[in-house]
Each structure stands twice: as C-alpha cells, then as structure tokens.
C-alpha cells in the first residue's frame, strides 16, 4: 500500500483548476489557504502571520513564500517559480504577490479570499486594493470527493491509527496516567509505522510522530472536547479514545468509548443507545442521500429514546487533508447549501461517491460521555466502513 500521492494526482488537480479558470474572465487563480495550497501544489506549511500564496495561470504555477520557506518550496518540481519576501511585518507579502501577478500580466484574479487570513496577528491590505478580485472555492469543493490515490492514503492512515489504538488499550491500567499512556501509544505506533514504511513515508510532521493516539477519561468525557485530566486512571473510569495517522497529509478518525473495569448499568444503557445511533447513521449513509437526512435519522431516534438533551453535536463530517471538512452531517446542511453566500449548488446537498465521513453521534450525561467514531467511505453502491476496531461493549471493556 502506498504512503505517498503520485505526481499525476497534482497534474490532474491543476488541469481541473485551469478548466474552471477558463470559464471565467480572470487571468489567474490564487489561494492563501494552507490546506488548499498543499492540495494543489504539494507544498505543505503551517499557516502563520507570514502569508503564502499560490498562483495558477493557464501555463504557470508560482508560489510566494516568506524567506524562511524558500528552500523547501523550491524543491517542488511542479512549481515553476518561487518568490519570497523577507518576513512580516518587515517584508511586503501582499506587495510581492501583486508584483508576481503583474509580471504574469494578471489584471483580474480568482482568489479563495480577498487578502491573507489574519492568522497569528497578521494584518495586511486587501488584494482587491491592487487588482480586480473575484472569489472562488474550487479547491475546497474538489476536496469533497476523494480519488483512488487519496483513498489509498486514507486506508493507510486507518491501518496505523488502529495500531495506535490497540497500544492505548494495551497500556491502559488502573494507576496509569492518561497523558503518559497516550504518549507511549503514539510513540510506539509511530515507531512501527516509520520502521515499516522507511523511505516511503512522506514527512509531514515536526518534532512529533505520524501517529497520534490518546484519550480523555473520567468526568472529562462528559465534554465532547474535554481535556486529558491530570489524574490517574481508576477502576470504573469511562474513556473516550481517539486515534489517527498522517499519511502524506491525509487522515482518518477512530474513536471508541471504553471502560476500565466492568461498566455500570447506566454505562451499558447509554453505550447501547450511542451504538444504535451510530448504526442508524451508517445505514442511512449512501450515494444520492441528502446529507441532512443522516442527522435527522439519528435525531429522530434520540427523540424516540428521550435523550435529545444529551446530544451535543451533529453526526459527523467529511475528512481528508483536513481533520474536519465539508460536507457536515448536520440538519442545517440543506439550508447551508441554498445560501448564496456558500456558492454551493443544489446537488451539493446530497452525498456523493468518494466522500469520506466520520460517523460519531454522541450522548453526554452530567458525569460521562459515550461516542464512537468510524471513518466511512461512500461508494457507488453503498458504503464501506474503513476503520475496524471492534465496536461492541465487551471488546471495549478493559479488565482490571
């Protein structure tokens, strides 16, 4: 199984962008968003106060970066030219971008936003102060459906996330600290992944391994985005795990509700409701199904069971280069698509083959939370659940 996107994947993406560009009056397309820049060019970076811009014309691909990124960006063959400014605020990022556009004879640009995002304190002029700008979201929309090459990376992510998750289970015990268990599981799974893939692994991290596996425990599980508590594990703790692996930028998501020792009657009750809700969601998912229908199906079940007050979030979201990507499995998705601000079409309200979703309905009481998350691919004929760690309560009970 491959752990790196083939070069022709980027060529196909750029061809699609140029096709969209040809249908406009713009002379070039431009992106400030780091994820979309990575998607189209293969240049990955952390979005900071130093803007990066990718410019695509009918015959050129050019990149503007801060000086500290120049060497890395210059290693990418598909980028025809890399220009740099020294830094921010001493340098002039927007001025350098405008100069690049002028040298390419661009008078109108189709951009993902009118100026660089105000990240980490950046504050700069609008692009439209110097050139005509029309806004576009072409790359964002292209990312919804995954190609076969992208799916290979996501499947590889699932493989290593599962290993990291198994290490979590193996290292969990009464008296252990959840932070050190998470670190150990992440490190050992990352080591196994790097040893196995060797040079095939595409470096995407700085100072940490490619696998992340961890959990929250005890009362923190009652909060969907709770913190890892600074308390050692005790018998009877509820644990909500999370595991993923970075494979050439692509991710999967695996989460389980687990119990350290025998679950209580309340634990079993809410676990069963959560598991049934997840099964309802997976069964409802499929090609040409309205995205919001899946969330409605789960909500109807929660209403029947009288537990809507324990729900805190929608059913799930698309996943790929971003940990959270649209479409979102939410009862408001159809209204979102018909809002002219979003630039979506009516067909975007329906699920399509190639989309990859996390399915993660949850219930949260005053004392504990209950949530599984699985990564599910939509196929031409139905769905395929890519994550495979067991979901039943017996398999998710850790003996003491």
TrEMBL record:
Transmembrane segments: none annotated. Residues 154-380 form the Peptidase M24 domain. InterPro entries: Creatin/AminoP/Spt16_N, Creatinase/aminopeptidase-like, Creatinase_N, Pept_M24, Peptidase_M24B. Residues 13-102 form the Creatinase N-terminal domain. Pfam families: Creatinase_N, Peptidase_M24. This is M24 family metallopeptidase.
């Amino acid at each position: 199984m491959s752990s790196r996107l083939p070069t022709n994947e980027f060529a196909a993406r750029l061809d699609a962008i140029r096709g969209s560009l040809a249908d406009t009056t713009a002379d070039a397309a431009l992106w400030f968003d780091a994820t979309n820049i990575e998607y189209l060019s293969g240049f990955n970076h952390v979005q900071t106060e130093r803007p990066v811009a990718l410019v695509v014309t009918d015959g050129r691909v050019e990149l503007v970066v801060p000086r500290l990124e120049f060497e890395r960006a210059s290693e990418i063959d598909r980028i025809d030219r890399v220009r740099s400014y020294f830094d921010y605020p001493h340098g002039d990022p927007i001025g350098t971008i405008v100069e690049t556009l002028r040298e390419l004879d661009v008078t109108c640009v189709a951009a993902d936003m009118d100026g660089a995002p105000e990240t980490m304190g950046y504050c700069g002029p609008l692009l439209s102060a110097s050139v005509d700008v029309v806004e576009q979201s072409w790359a964002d929309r292209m990312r919804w459906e995954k190609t076969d090459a992208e799916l290979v990376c996501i499947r590889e992510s699932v493989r290593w996330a599962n290993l990291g998750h198994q290490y979590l289970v193996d290292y969990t015990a009464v008296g252990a600290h959840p932070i050190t268990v998470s670190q150990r599981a992440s490190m050992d799974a990352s080591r196994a992944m790097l040893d196995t893939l060797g040079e095939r692994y595409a470096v995407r991290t700085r100072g940490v391994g490619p696998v992340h596996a961890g959990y929250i425990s005890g009362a923190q599980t009652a909060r969907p985005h709770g913190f890892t508590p600074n308390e050692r594990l005790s018998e009877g703790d509820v644990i909500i795990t999370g595991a993923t692996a970075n494979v050439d930028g692509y991710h999967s998501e695996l989460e389980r509700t687990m119990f350290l020792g025998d679950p209580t009657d309340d634990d079993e009750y809410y676990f069963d409701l959560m598991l049934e809700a997840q099964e309802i969601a997976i069964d409802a998912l499929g090609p040409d199904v309205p995205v919001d229908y899946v969330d409605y199906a789960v909500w109807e079940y929660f209403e029947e069971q009288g537990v809507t007050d324990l729900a805190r979030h929608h059913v799930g979201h698309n996943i790929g280069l971003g940990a959270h990507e649209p479409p979102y499995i939410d009862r408001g998705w159809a209204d979102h698509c018909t809002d002219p601000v979003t630039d979506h079409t009516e067909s975007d309200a329906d699920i399509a083959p190639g989309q990859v979703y996390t399915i993660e309905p949850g219930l949260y009481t005053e004392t504990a939370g209950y949530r599984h998350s699985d990564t599910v691919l939509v196929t031409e004929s139905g769905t395929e659940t890519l994550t495979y760690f067991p979901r039943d309560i017996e398999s998710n009970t850790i003996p003491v």
